[in-house]
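We were asked to recover a plausible sequence for a given structure. The inputs and outputs are reproduced exactly as logged, with field labels preserved.

PROBLEM: sequence recovery
POSITIONS: 206
GIVEN STRUCTURE:
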C-alpha cells in the first residue's frame, strides 16, 4: 500500500538541485502518493459535486530549466485537463501541504465566477472557516488568512478576478510541514475530505 501522508524526505525533494534530478525524485517519491490521493478523491468529489471528476497529477512537462517548487494532483470535471476549469488540488511546497479550490488565469468563465463571488461575499465571509486562507497567485506560496479579511476586502479580491487578465483565486487550507509529517493516513485523508466539504459552495458558485 502506498502511504498518502508526506514524509520529511518528500518535502526535501524541493531542496534537490537540477531539473532532471528533482523530477526523478518527484516521480519516485511523490507522484505515487498523488496518484493514490487522485484515485480516492476523484471518486469522493464525483459524489460530492454531482459531476464526474478526473484526477490530473502535475507532470511539469513544460519545464526546461527551473525545477518545480511545488507539485500537486488536481481534480476537474474534464478528463483532458483542469486549468480551464474550476478545480480542486492537493499538493505540497517544501514548507507545507495545500488543499485548494482554484480558478486560475486560464479559466474562460473567470469574470462570471468573480461576479458570483462578489454577490455572495457576505455569505462566504460567514461560511468559510476562519482558519482557511486565500491566494491570488497559484505560483507563489503566499496566502491571506480568511480571518484577516473583511467583506469589503473579499469584494475587492473578487472584483479583481473579473477585471485583471492574470488574476486568480484559490481558497483552502495549508498544513505546515512539521504538522503534516506527523499525521496518520487516516487523519490526513479526513482533513482533506473536511476541507473539500467547506469548499463545495465555491465550486457550486463556479
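RECOVERED SEQUENCE:
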Amino acid at each position: 500500500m502506498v502511504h498518502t501522508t508526506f514524509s520529511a524526505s518528500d518535502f526535501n525533494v524541493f531542496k534537490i538541485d537540477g531539473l532532471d534530478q528533482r523530477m526523478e525524485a518527484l516521480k519516485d517519491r511523490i507522484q505515487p502518493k498523488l496518484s493514490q490521493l487522485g484515485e480516492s478523491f476523484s471518486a469522493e468529489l464525483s459524489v460530492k459535486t454531482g459531476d464526474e471528476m478526473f484526477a490530473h497529477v502535475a507532470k511539469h512537462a513544460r519545464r526546461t530549466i527551473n525545477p518545480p517548487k511545488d507539485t500537486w494532483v488536481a481534480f476537474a470535471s474534464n478528463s483532458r485537463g483542469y486549468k480551464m476549469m474550476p478545480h480542486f488540488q492537493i499538493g505540497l511546497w517544501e514548507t507545507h501541504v495545500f488543499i485548494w479550490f482554484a480558478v486560475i488565469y486560464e479559466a474562460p468563465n473567470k469574470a462570471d465566477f468573480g461576479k458570483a463571488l462578489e454577490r455572495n461575499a457576505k455569505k462566504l465571509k460567514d461560511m468559510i472557516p476562519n482558519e482557511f486562507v486565500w491566494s491570488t497567485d497559484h505560483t507563489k506560496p503566499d496566502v491571506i488568512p480568511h480571518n484577516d479579511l473583511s467583506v469589503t476586502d473579499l469584494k475587492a479580491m473578487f472584483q479583481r478576478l473579473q477585471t485583471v487578465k492574470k488574476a486568480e483565486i484559490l481558497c483552502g487550507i495549508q498544513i505546515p510541514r512539521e504538522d503534516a509529517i506527523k499525521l496518520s493516513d487516516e487523519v490526513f485523508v479526513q482533513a482533506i475530505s473536511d476541507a473539500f466539504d467547506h469548499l463545495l459552495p465555491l465550486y457550486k458558485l463556479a
